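so ive been stuck on this for like two days lol. basically i have the seq below and the ligand is adenosine-5'-triphosphate, smiles is in there too. i just want the complex predicted, nothing fancy, no docking runs or whatever. if the output looks off dont worry ill sanity check it later, just need somthing to start from for the group meeting slides
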Amino acid sequence: MACVRILIADDHELVREGLRALLASRPAWEVCGEAADGVEAIEKAAELQPDIVLLDVSMPRLSGLEAAALIRRESPTSEILIVSQHDPAEMLPSALKAGARGFVSKSDIASNLLSTIESIVGPARRAAANGAEPHVVTAAALPGPLDPERQHAERLLLEQNHLLELIARGRPLDQCLRAITESVAHLQPGVRAAIALLDGNRTRIERIVSSRLPAVLTARLCELPIVSDGATMPCGAALARGELCTCPDIAVDARWSAPWRELCIAYGVRALHTTPVWSADGTAIASFFVCLAEAREPNAWERDLVQFGAHLGSVAIERWRAETALQEARDHLESRVRERTEELEKAYTSLRVLSMRMMQMQDEDRRRIARDLHDSAGQLLAALGMELASLNGRAAALSPELAEDINSSLQLVEQLTQEIRTASYLLHPPLLDDAGLSGALRWYVAGLSKRSGIAITLELDEALGRLPRDLEAAVFHIVQESLTNIHRHSGSRTATLRIARTDGRLLLDIEDQGRGIPAEMLREIQTQGSGVGIAGMRERVLHFNGDIRITSRSTGTRVAVTFPVEPGGVRADSRSLDS
Ligand SMILES: Nc1ncnc2c1ncn2[C@@H]1O[C@H](COP(=O)(O)OP(=O)(O)OP(=O)(O)O)[C@@H](O)[C@H]1O
Ligand SMILES: [Mg+2]
């Protein structure tokens, strides 16, 4: 025998060594190369052009089956033998499909490998020498000669695995059904197989799936009712009753009505054997049938094939039904989630509108109470002070003791006036309306610094100018809330407040050097939760289409807010709800 050059591809070095040792027993054979993965196997095959490549299946980068297909394409003179530890019954069809000429299980290497290689390279070389097609060696891979019954069982098993894999991969239903009919036609050359699916009323065939029957025939069969008096077809009627049906010679079968008979015979269908395809709930939902071109009874193998097709058809249809039901449930769930999200968004929006409205009402109340305190109580106290002062002047001449008492009352009036003014200013500084944000903030910051002892640095943009009334109030309240938070929660002795107006934006920055916001609270704040103070700040910011960012560490907290405003110091358009 001429020298046979062999390429070994296996990711395990020990296996490669073992194969080498085994192949060395044939002096005329030579291991021309080794590869440790699928890609290397392709490259080496192209470079070395071996007579045969021994390919493992599970390899890094590219599996042996994928590599086999590419080697067949790129190095067509190299034969391929799959050597793997997979079950031969499972692997052989895939190996052949990938272009391999045989399969040897790793557990059978010692007994089968050499003879399998011989049976591949022997005929292949002779065929090549004669210019003929090499024949496929498959039996070499399977253990021992099989009796016909066992052979049938093996073939059914192989086809079944292939079909179940197709179904399990979720391929479209008709593709699976067509593959089943094709398998049956392949297992029994000469017969044509098909699956007829019934419509909801079970009086007509909804559609017929077949790899071999012409589409025009299947379409016309669907037009005929299966159980009406005028056009009877015994197999259809049997299906409606969930029974098997055999028609050995349609041409002479009195049960067949003319339209069905003529149509079938016109397309070469002379005998028919059908069986119902059952659903999981025990209803016959379809019919699997084989068509014979000659008048005869189906043989035992054909009857088995019909059962085989019906069983797999039922698996495919049930899987498809389950998947469809699952998809519908998923769609339903998704649409419910969408609806609920929309509802929640609506509820959230109305809540925001409501809370903003409440804040505005609160602002208005504060403004009114502040004005009332200032205008009524404040004015009355001023009048009282003047009265007491004039009384004091007159009393001084009459009674020094009385003058002393009046003087004490006068001081009380002054103290009360101061208290009322502070309360009124804190509720709503009149400066805010009259002198604008800068004046009100200067006054507020000075007062808070004095009361709290916090050294607050105020950096106010010279060009701040005036802003819409509602926006000025919102900024003032945000500053008020932030500085109150610093005073109440941060423990910081210092704070900085910066306000600048640039490029159509108002930038507000309030920073402290305190202990920071506790981590859990910060998370809550950043996911829109938190106390009323910060939530109120956020509402005010959102109302004016602004943006608020709160960052905090153990060394301090920063609240950064921006608002869109008209460039320059002009009043921007207010979106106040009550305007
Ligand atoms: N500058 C800060 N330094 C440290 N912690 C802060 C600071 N600002 C806020 N916090 C933390 O964030 C929390 C939430 O603040 P928020 O203003 O929303 O509510 P509050 O001040 O507790 O109550 P209120 O509704 O009266 O304002 C505070 O309880 C505090 O723990
Ligand atoms: Mg607060």
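The CA atoms of residues 516 and 556 lie 5 Å apart. Confidence is low (pLDDT under 50) at residues 126-146, 570-579.
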